[in-house]
Design brief:
The chain is an alpha+beta fold. Helices cover 62% and strands 11% of the residues.
């Protein structure tokens, strides 16, 4: 079975664009982002929105608290709304726009549907409708029974007995319907409970790596603060030297004025001017030498600051990637596709991207398929398909 797919595709998220003063696209609502990417269901979104209206709490906080989606997933959705890298209460995130464009460039699959919940809802609705119909019939029967008791002759109780029998039958059926509705409601509530957390060793490894990156990032932030403090001290020292030179110039001007006021001879004034010129020259030379040292120290600190900030940005991006990997693992637990009877393979062919169906479970991530490598295993890019898909890179 073969499908062809050619050309490029933009990401589903909001791209991080430079602010050039032009119009911006309206950000997609947080709930819509989570539903459209299959992280939560429509029913879970309705429950969260209802609770948000009642309590005023942020929607993302409610989604995480109820266990509908992981905190890193909500952070990714918030970063997608923001248009790029964002620091949230759940950690750093880059958003889905850039990541989805960098991976396989395939159409985003429709969110998965919980068939069991849908079947339970349909069955519950059917039983409720039948229950309402039975209740109406029972009310009519009760009315007929009351009328018969009022107008029927005492000696003839056959019609009354028949109505009594019908009432008892309806009461038994109503009780059975009530029991069936209660059972369906219980099953529906159980089906809508969030799934228990997945015990995946890869999640443990990613969590440990994330903690290590956060510790390094915190240390880098402290280093940046120390470098900024050192740079401020250098600037203050240079300002002090410049003020000292200005004071020496003022003292020289004051001495000249004092000598002129005393009526000193030309030779005395010439000697004083010569000494003042020497002193000012020495002060200027000391200031130039000190300024050169300060500039050199400042340049070195600026270079260290730039390197520290660049490393901090790299750490933040790596943290966001780790959070995204953790969120994806929580949705796609290890070994989920081991029992699949067939799978899809998405790869770069000679005429564009191709999608091929093969029998058996998908290959492992990192393994080779021909001359290409399996980059990741995820859901099929075909709406409504439950098959896993192996995305290859050359």
């Amino acid at each position: 079975m073969l499908w062809g797919y050619c050309g490029n595709r933009n990401g589903d998220g909001v791209a991080a664009l430079p602010d050039n003063g032009g119009p911006r696209m309206r950000a997609e609502p947080l709930g819509s982002l989570l539903v459209s990417r299959g992280h939560i269901t429509e029913e879970q979104l309705e429950l969260a929105l209802t609770e948000q209206k009642a309590t005023g709490r942020p929607l993302g906080e409610i989604v995480v608290a109820r266990g509908f989606a992981a905190a890193p997933t909500v952070a990714q959705a918030l970063a997608t709304q923001h248009g790029g890298l964002l620091k949230t209460e759940y950690g750093f995130a880059t958003g889905w726009g850039g990541q989805e464009n960098s991976q396989a460039r395939v159409p985003r699959p429709e969110p998965p549907r919980n068939d069991e919940v849908d079947q339970l809802r349909a069955s519950l609705e059917e039983h409720r409708n039948a229950l309402d119909a039975w209740k109406q019939s029972y009310a009519v029967l009760e009315e007929r029974l009351a009328q018969a008791q009022q107008v029927a002759p005492p000696v003839d109780g056959s019609g009354l007995a028949q109505l009594e029998a019908e009432r008892e039958t309806l009461q038994a059926e109503l009780a059975a319907r009530d029991s069936a509705v209660a059972e369906l409601e219980e099953r529906l509530a159980e089906a809508q409970k969030p799934a228990p957390p997945v015990d995946d060793p890869r999640l443990t490894r990613l969590a440990a790596e994330r903690d290590s990156l956060q510790a390094e990032l915190a240390a880098r932030d402290r280093s940046i603060e120390q470098l900024q403090s050192s740079r401020a001290k250098v600037e203050a020292g240079r300002a002090e030297l410049e003020q000292a030179l200005a004071n020496e110039v003022d003292r020289g001007d004051a001495l000249r004025a004092e000598v002129a006021a005393t009526g000193a001879s030309e030779s005395v004034r010439a000697e004083l001017e010569e000494r003042l010129a020497v002193l000012q020259g020495e002060a200027e030379e000391r200031l130039k030498a000190a300024a050169a040292e300060f500039d050199l120290a400042r340049d070195g600190l600026d270079q260290q600051l730039a390197a520290a900030r660049e490393r901090a940005a790299s750490l933040e991006a790596e943290l966001a990637r780790r959070d995204a990997d953790s969120a994806e693992l929580e949705i796609e637990p290890e070994g989920r596709w081991d029992s699949a009877e067939s799978h899809l393979v998405f790869f770069q062919g000679t005429d564009g991207y191709e999608l091929v169906e093969r029998s058996g479970p998908p290959p492992r991530e990192g393994s080779s398929v021909g001359a290409q490598i399996v980059a990741r295993i995820s859901r099929a890019p075909i709406p409504g398909s439950a098959l896993p898909c192996a995305y290859l890179i050359a």
